[in-house]
Design a protein that fits this description.
The structure is a homodimer of 346-residue chains.
Chain A: E1 2-6, H1 15-27, E2 33-38, H2 40-49, E3 58-62, H3 73-79, H4 84-93, E4 99-102, H5 106-117, E5 127-134, E6 137-142, H6 154-168, E7 176-180, H7 191-205, E8 212-217, H8 221-224, E9 229-231, H9 234-261, H10 263-271, H11 273-283, E10 290-294, E11 299-303, H12 309-324, H13 327-345
Parallel strand pairs in A: 1-2, 1-4, 2-3, 4-11, 6-9, 7-8, 7-9
Antiparallel strand pairs in A: 5-6, 5-10, 10-11
Helix pairs in contact in A: 1-12, 3-5, 4-5, 6-13, 9-10
Chain lengths: 346, 346
């Protein structure tokens, strides 16, 4: 497969993207070509410095503009037609590449992918699927920010898209899918979550769902139960995701502060280093790499702004897996079965 | 002040409530009387066993019924008129006690307090205010579950109630208050959060707010910035709160699992014990004690189901502080200034 990398995206761009490309060249043979999109002279120099300047799998595509992290996503797509992000998405739109990866402005990545690639047949809205570490592996939360004002029916699409991710990328053939709520009982929830629950239950009773619908779930179920997919609107999902990331950071902060206060703890911490490192790795967004924006015609992975080279490698691997398993075709097929019943229900 | 304790509430009731009452008797002189509400013979024995059976500050009020953790809150209030929770709230309603504390069924505590005590003058909806530890102390999140389908105007009341908690209980004279959103820019948010933002901004421009409105905040601001109050609907707030609690638990789980795997780490962990203990304490709900249900006519504190005696003591101390500072009167005054402008805006 061929892959477009928004080389100017991310807090430490282009370095992280050059590092990532180098790792892909070394470790992921199935990726036949990487298009690095960004300022040609900067990228040329950076590739030479990294010792990959003459690698035949690498192509540099010049993009004179860059979308900053602060810009409005929609405005950036409309006004900066020659940004590295826009041109990277264009490579997927034209069919030259199968996937685009960007660690840049999330809003702009969502807008560019949705506007340029358009929605998959049968999908109402695109959604971001965020893999979060749990004690059982990963739980996929969707949507985490593409669509803050979701309708209940949008969650059906998120459920199918996330379930296909769980099946093909996280090796969960019949994933457990639940609706996030403020209580697990059927009667609990907001009007929004209760309606989503009702739609899923009716589709489940007609045996139309390609996953196991388990009902409502609460915040703690994300970590503690054998849950594979948790569904919510992009507003709640985004707040949830950032709060969980921040809790993990706060925990580290308190740990470091506590260690500094006590000489015995400081010495003991040395013996704990491998444990701390393994927790940091399992909680780090870098080991996941990125979150796919699902429901668009193509593969679009949004990496964290603070991504490093390893994160970019992992995001590229996720893209390769989604492409190899034809995840988008599986979504189209599932939605074709579901939609007649779903639209009959409305 | 006099205080009613739902002695049958909590996963480990009545033990935790007896433990809590004993600690209050030992450490909190300003609480002149504790009414333990629950099964008289069980409570009598438990008090005797704890050595507080003949303490003149303690009164046992017999309640033949108990609300279980699984019951629907509203149904429990309607059907079990003689539950320990209902009768404890009745003691506040009649004016006999100034505050009620329960570690029982949250939905039932919200329903009983709202129905029996009624709303404070000028308050549209009651909300739960949850103090969460941050690197700067505490941030108060409201609402965390009383009202899953909030209207934007309800957040004005939550803002005032939480700000008064921040001022009088957490010693923040001019608290920083923000609306939770999926981005900090003015334009970010759901239709709901954007309307709440607009209302707060207009009230702020008229200098009617008894706090500093700082705009939007994201999940990570809860821990990292000098934020005192974060506003959201009860659906999002509940998911957020439980997810954060679960993240902290997952972190401990990974830490313990990692330590078990390595003999060096196991030995080193002994030297880190004081650090782990201090983190566990600062992240534990027990050090906060409980979350006030604010906006009702009286003081009602909801403790965690897994509360221990220390949590009950701290919940009682919170109630004492709210009563001593006349927090409810301060809320009524602030709402009286705000409401004409707020209702003019609609």
């Amino acid at each position: 497969m061929k892959l477009a990398l928004d080389a100017m995206g991310g807090d430490n761009a282009p370095k992280i993207n050059i590092d990532g490309a180098k790792l892909v060249l070394e470790k992921q043979e199935s990726i036949k070509s990487i298009y690095l999109v960004g300022d040609e002279s900067i990228l040329r120099k950076a590739c030479d410095a990294a010792g990959i300047g003459s690698n035949p799998k690498l192509q540099i595509v010049h993009a004179p503009e860059v979308v900053s992290m602060e810009e409005s996503g929609l405005a950036a797509v409309r006004q900066k037609k020659h940004s590295s992000m826009s041109l990277a998405v264009d490579l997927v739109k034209s069919g030259e590449c199968a996937a685009v990866i960007s660690a840049g402005n999330t809003g702009a990545a969502v807008a560019a992918s949705t506007i340029k690639l358009r929605l998959l047949e049968g999908v109402e809205r695109a959604g971001i699927v965020s893999p979060m570490p749990s004690v059982h592996g990963y739980v996929l939360v969707s949507d985490t920010g593409a669509n803050p004002d979701a309708k209940p029916s949008h969650l059906i699409g998120y459920a199918v898209m996330s379930a296909m991710m769980a099946r093909y990328i996280y090796n969960r053939p019949m994933p457990n899918v639940a609706v996030m709520s403020n209580g697990t009982e059927d009667c609990k929830g907001s009007e929004f979550s209760k309606e989503a629950y009702r739609l899923l239950k009716m589709l489940d009773e007609q045996a139309l769902l390609p996953f196991h619908f388990t009902g409502n779930c609460e915040g703690h179920d994300l970590f503690e139960t054998e849950l594979d997919v948790a569904l919510t609107d992009g507003f709640t999902g985004n707040i949830l995701l950032k709060s969980v990331e921040a809790t993990a950071k706060a925990f580290s902060h308190w740990l470091k502060a506590g260690i500094k206060k006590s000489p015995i703890a400081m010495i003991s911490a040395i013996g704990m280093r491998s444990v701390f490192r393994s927790i940091a790795e399992s909680m780090s967004a870098d080991s996941v790499g990125g979150c796919p924006l699902m429901g668009v015609n193509g593969v679009s992975i949004i990496a964290h702004g603070s991504a490093n080279g390893t994160a970019i490698l992992n995001a590229c691997r996720m893209a390769e897996g989604m492409h190899r398993h034809n995840v988008n075709d599986r979504i189209i097929e599932a939605m074709a079965r579901i939609n007649p019943a779903l639209h009959g229900l409305h």
